[in-house]
Specification:
- By secondary structure, the protein is an alpha/beta fold.
- The chain has one domain: 3-Layer(aba) Sandwich (Rossmann fold), CATH 3.40.50.
- The protein has 6 helices and 5 strands.
- A 5-stranded parallel β-sheet has the order 2-1-3-4-5.
- Helix 1 links the parallel strand 1 and strand 2.
- Helix 1 runs parallel beside helix 5.
- The N and C termini lie far apart (about 70 Å).
- The relative contact order is 0.16.
- The structure holds 5-O-phosphono-beta-D-ribofuranose.
């Protein structure tokens, strides 16, 4: 059988408990028709599985990795250590520190080992998907056009929302 490769985004979460928030990432990719894989694998609890999955996903055509983790969040950095594909880190609010622990653990990478870190929680999950698509769109004009159209829709929504409640003298 022909071994067909296609570009996709890989979403890795440190725990199933991250899924409620990270569904916002996968839903955003679905909305734009972008293929993705989504798995649970932990930097701490299943380091070997994480490493071997990243290598397999890269071989299958993963072009961007989204890594979501909370607390002492090392998942994005651990993934960055085994691939040169772009890694986007989403800090999860999973402790009494409100996600600030995960934000700092994710963003403070040493030079030469980047993780593009987005906001804590839902906005970060959505933006991770957008950023991943913007990276794919560098080589996909159809996707680039969809992203341009989405910006126009966002602008129109602001105007429509304002019209519903605005007071202008
Ligand atoms: C992190 O610890 C996970 O990414 C999750 O955000 C947090 C708590 O995990 P659970 O104890 O809920 O599995 O590794």
């Amino acid at each position: 059988m022909e071994n067909r490769k296609f570009d996709f985004v890989s979403i890795v979460m440190g725990s199933k408990s991250d899924y409620t928030i990270m569904k916002n990432s996968s839903d955003t990719l679905v909305k734009f028709g972008v293929k993705f894989e989504l798995i649970v694998s932990s930097a701490h609890r299943s380091p070997e599985r994480t490493k071997s999955y990243i290598r397999e996903a890269e071989n299958k055509g993963a072009k961007v990795f989204i890594a979501a983790a909370g607390m002492a969040a090392h998942l994005a950095g651990a993934i960055a250590s085994v691939t040169t594909k772009p890694v986007i880190g989403v800090p999860m609010d999973a402790s009494s520190l409100g996600g600030n622990d995960a934000l700092l653990s994710t963003v403070q990478m040493p030079g030469g080992m980047p993780v593009a870190t987005v906001a804590i929680g839902k906005a970060g999950a959505v933006n991770a998907a957008y950023l991943a698509m913007q990276i794919l769109a560098l080589n996909d004009s159809e996707l680039a056009e969809k992203l341009r159209e989405d910006r126009i829709l966002q602008s129109k929504k602001v105007e429509a929302d304002s019209r519903e409640i605005e007071v202008i003298l």
